[in-house]
C-alpha cells in the first residue's frame, strides 16, 4: 500500500512487533512516533511522557521543519540537502575509523559523486533554458 505524501511507517520496538504510521509534517504525529517507537510507553501514557521527556518535542520540531524544508525545496535544493547529509555522514565515518566503515564510506562517496553529477546536470539544464 502506498502512503500519502509525507506519511511514513516505522517499526515499533523489535522486529515483528508492529509498525507505527505517522505524518512527518505534523508535530503531534511525529511525537507519537517517538513515543510508540520506544519501550517507555508501557510505563507512561503519552501526555505524561511529553511532560517528562520534553526534550523530544524540540527534536521532533526539528524533524518536522527539516521534512517540510526538503518537501518544499526545488530539485537542486533537494540535491544540496542530500549532498550535505552525505558529506556529514562520510566525515563521521572517517573520523570513527573502525573496521568495516571504510567500505561503507566508499559506497557513500560514490553516491556523493553521483549526486554532484546530477546537481551539475540540473544546473546546466536550467542555464540552457531560463524560466520566464
What is shown here, in short?
By secondary structure, this protein is mainly α. Helices cover 64% and strands 8% of the residues. The protein has five helices and two strands.
User: Could you name the ranges where pLDDT drops below 50 across 5 or more consecutive residues?
Assistant: none
Count of helix runs: 5
Query: How many domains would you count in the coordinates?
Result: 2
Helix content: 55-70%
Strand order of the largest sheet: 1-2
Strand/helix succession? EEHHHHH
Strand fraction: 5-15%
Given the helix and strand composition, which structural class is it?
A: mainly alpha
Rg: 19 Å
Q: Sheet with the most strands?
A: 2 strands, antiparallel
The total beta strand count reads: 2
**What is the mean predicted local confidence, pLDDT?**
86
Can you give a write-up of this model?
The chain has 132 residues and is mainly alpha-helical. It has 2 domains: 7-71, no CATH class; 75-128. 64% of the residues lie in helices and 8% in strands. The chain contains 5 helices and 2 strands, in the order E-E-H-H-H-H-H. The chain has a two-stranded antiparallel sheet. Strand 1 (7-11) and strand 2 form a beta hairpin. Helix 1 (27-36) crosses helix 3 and helix 4 (75-96) packs antiparallel against helix 5 (101-128). The longest helix is centred in the last third of the chain and has 28 residues, at 101-128.
Amino acid at each position: 500500500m502506498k502512503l500519502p505524501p509525507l506519511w511514513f511507517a516505522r517499526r515499533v520496538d523489535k522486529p515483528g512487533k508492529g509498525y507505527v504510521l505517522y505524518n512527518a509534517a505534523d508535530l503531534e504525529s511525529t511525537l507519537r512516533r517517538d513515543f510508540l517507537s520506544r519501550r517507555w510507553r508501557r510505563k507512561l501514557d503519552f501526555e505524561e511522557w511529553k511532560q517528562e521527556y520534553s526534550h523530544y518535542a524540540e527534536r521532533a520540531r526539528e524533524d518536522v521543519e527539516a521534512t517540510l524544508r526538503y518537501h518544499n525545496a526545488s530539485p537542486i535544493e533537494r540535491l544540496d540537502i542530500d549532498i550535505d547529509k552525505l558529506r556529514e555522514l562520510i566525515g563521521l565515518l572517517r573520523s570513527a575509523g573502525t573496521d568495516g566503515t571504510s567500505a561503507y564510506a566508499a559506497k557513500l562517496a560514490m553516491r556523493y559523486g553521483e549526486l554532484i553529477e546530477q546537481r551539475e546536470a540540473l544546473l546546466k539544464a536550467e542555464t540552457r533554458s531560463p524560466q520566464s
